Amino acid sequence: MNILDIIERKRVGENLTKEEIKFAFMEYMEGHIEDYQMSSLLMAITINGMSFEETLTLTDVMLSSGKKMDTSKINGIQVDKHSTGGVGDKTSLIIGPIMACLGLKMGKLSGRGLGITGGTIDKLESIPGFRVSLTSHEFIHNLNKVGFTECEQTPEFTPLDKKIYNLRSVTGTVSSIPLIASSIMSKKLATGADYILIDLKVGNGALIQNKSDGVKLANTMIEIGKSYNKVVIPILTNMNRPLGDNVGNALEILEVLDILKGKTGLLRNLCIELASNLYSKVKKINIDIATREVTRVLDDGSAYTKFLEFIKEQGGNIDALETAPNLMPIKSITSGTLKDIKAKSIGSLVLQLGGGRKKKEDHINYGVGVVINKHIGDQINEGDTLCYLYQVDNTDYSSQALEAFTIVK
Ligand code: URA
To answer: Does the Cβ of 109 fall within 6 Å of ligand 1?
Structure first.
């Protein structure tokens, strides 16, 4: 078999055989196929798509590239949750502690930032000492002890996805439906949860830009789940605006703490909606009862205590979390009503500030980012601060920042 023939076949829109998919991806994993060849195949897949059979095969190849969790050692019902990625999306760090407080076990393998979208692993790494790399033994131990754990794909779990994910991040191939579906589902299947909630982000700040692609991705993941006897619960949510006020790794951890300590608003509401849907499906209870339970553990502070327990268990020192030293207020140059805050512009700005990667080997500045100071519908006067930039230098980013805000008279 020959990688050039495989690239050619996909380039002209043909379906690849199981053997071809296995050959191309496993040989890449073992270092026998170069980055530039895999990039070319990924681009052909992004342009021409994959059939369901091809997507299922790719999921299986990703899954088989590593170990599967021995879930028999987990005491309790194991659930999982994944977001397809957005700007300011820190929901799993809020939903995980909620699920643990409700007696479920939520263990997640997560990714790093992809394009302009942030990744939970980068966010967690902003906490000094936090270990994102766990063995399967530690993963199970943490699940049984704390009820919530989150780590990166180690060489043990879906190592192929990790390699492909890093390459996609820098080759313009992040928005492909089969590549997203196989990436997410292989990680979910490796950890073995029976119920998998997918927060499927749709909008200008997400990998998926329109609803019909969102529905296609949701159906693909439901079908992959069925093939493995898993319940996949996809919920399409808006990602035209950043989620919450803080965007940037350490800043997002601070906002997680705020929400768990009682901050209200759209981010809290979304977390309650997602958590309640998952809980009601698992427990087979009415959504209103589930919502009451979810809200209770948020309001009584137990989810906050659980989050701190999770951080401590993985070695993190939350008190040592640092944000970038230079705080730059961005002032409005007009007056009117704030109509829109574009997630895509805020995501690109954080990338420019150094909060994400433009190349695979880029290092992240964990402390940089944006804190939004005004909300949609607010009346704005000229000179009001729309947002604050946390920077490591004094570069003037005000024109890029202002682009994100639409203010109408
Ligand atoms: N999250 C993942 O794990 N993979 C993707 O491809 C997109 C979002």
So the answer is: no
- The model carries a pTM of 0.89
Per-residue pLDDT of the chain (409 residues; tens, 9 = 90+): 999 999 999 999 999 999 999 999 999 999 999 999 999 999 999 999 999 999 999 999 999 999 998 889 999 999 999 988 889 999 999 999 999 999 999 999 888 887 787 889 999 999 999 999 998 899 999 999 999 999 987 788 899 999 999 899 889 999 999 999 999 999 999 989 999 999 999 998 888 999 999 999 999 999 999 999 999 999 999 988 999 999 999 999 999 999 999 999 999 999 999 999 999 999 999 999 999 999 999 999 999 999 999 999 999 999 999 999 999 999 999 999 999 999 999 999 999 999 998 877 788 999 999 999 999 999 999 999 999 999 999 999 999 999 999 999 9
Q: Indicate the DSSP class of residue 361.
A: T
Measured in Å, residue 165 CA sits from the centre of ligand 1 at 7
For residue 63, the CA-to-ligand 1 centroid distance in Å is: 14
For the chain, which residues make up each domain, given as ranges? 3-49, 71-319, 324-408
Domain covering 3-49, topology: 1.20.970
> Under 8 Å CB-to-CB from 115, ≥6 apart: which residues?
169, 174, 207, 347, 356
CATH number for the region 324-408 comes to 3.90.1170.30
One-letter identity of residue 255? E
Catalytic residues: 82, 161, 168, 183, 187
From the CB of 169, is ligand 1 less than 6 Å away?
A: no
Which residue has the least CA distance to atom 8 on ligand 1?
Answer: 84
Q: Phi then psi for 369, rounded to 5 degrees?
A: 155, -165
C-alpha to C-alpha distance for 346 and 88, rounded to whole angstroms: 9
Mode of pairing for the β-strands spanning 379-380 and 336-341: antiparallel
**Please, are residues 297 and 98 in contact by the beta-carbon 8 Å criterion?**
yes
Is the minimum distance from the CB of 84 to ligand 1 under 6 angstroms? yes
3-state SS class at 44? helix
CATH of region 71-319, choose from 3.40.720.10, 3.40.1030.10, 3.90.79.10, 3.40.50.300:
3.40.1030.10
* Amino acid found at 323: T
**CB-ligand 1 contact for 85 (6 Å cutoff):** yes
Q: Which of 169, 180, 237 to mutate to test the pocket of ligand 1 (most atoms within 8 A of CB)?
A: 180
| Atom of ligand 1 lying closest to residue 84 CA | 8
